[in-house]
Amino acid sequence: MLLLKRFFSHLSTLGFFALGVGLQGADWPQYLGPGRDAVYPGEALTRAWPSDGLKVLWRKRDIGAGMSGVVAAKGRVVLFHELNRYDTIDCLDAKSGKSIWKNSYASSFVPGYGSAAGPRATPAIAGGRVYTMGGQGVVVCTDFATGKTVWKVDTQKVYRASDGFFGMACSPLVEGNAVLLNIGGEAGAGIVALDKNTGKLLWKTLDDEASYSSPVMATLHGKRRAVFFTRTGLAVVDPANGELGFQSRWRARTHASVNAAAPLVVGDRIFVTSSYNTGALVVQSVGGGFKTVWSNDSSLSSQYASVMHRDGFLYGTHGRADVPPIPALRCVELATGKVRWSEDDFGDCLMLRCGDRLLALMESGELVLGRATPAGWREISRAQVLGSGARSQPALANGRLFVRDRNQLVCLDMP
Fold it and tell me: Domain 2-413: which CATH class?
């Protein structure tokens, strides 16, 4: 259990937005970006950085506690943090960093096992609303234009959801009329769907405890499906009614472990990864069911960081952040699990991709830019932009990069 303490200090909010929000140009309206795959759809990361460092457009100091990633849409940035025991949804002007509105509510969350305070889950901006969930499981729908609360649900009180090891971390997934969440509630409320307009329960399913992963949407067998990576393992669910289409146990044998990285769906294949001697699993939708393509603990075992895909290859970190050896950056064939290359001692980080350029925010607060292809890794630039404790997913929107550590949020011009 002691090994888990440092884990959550490295755990990024593993939040998600649903494809129901839709691609919004080069906005970044949820964790892992507009396609929920850590890919920036616009043009960026095209050249090496100046020798004197990246240009800081603005900096917001003395921000509150939390590891929630920022999101950006329609010229605004949403920062979710804890200020003086209040979870605060802070809407800022993307160009200047000036506050537009704030929406706060009292927080009862007490972090466990030496983990940091504040919210873990990244907000989702969808349909003129902002959806958030704090570390103690309070889900809030806020009007994006005014900052007024539309509805609020305390999932711990209503569904008897548990803090788990480090608090609740599933970011809302908006699909159709539903807000989907893995909350680990009792009486079959492991996964719940709340009405996005009212917060009322639409359906609930499974007895799985909550993980630190967040769900994604995909088209499987020609139908829209929500893909969850719960504490128990992989689950494919019909977002309209909660009907379970597929389930596969994928977790460590030891209790002192977590599932944290987001699932990744590429065509008809689903990839999940965990650490703690668990490894990676790829299943494929075939006919009316699913079959295992490959699974092992040697290809790509990520403790918390989500994995990216390009042209049949996976890019991600292999190894644990809390025990030696230092995590490696790897390229792995999706079809076979074969390791194409491994950049050892790369370090724990959170990443995004634009074309063949990979941008990594290291826990030390250093940004690393490189070219990642099946042929190898070539570092292009490095810049120290934050202090230590940078454990939130970076966001890239309209040529601006938003990164945060324990104390500050920085907006950088990203060439």
Answer: mainly beta
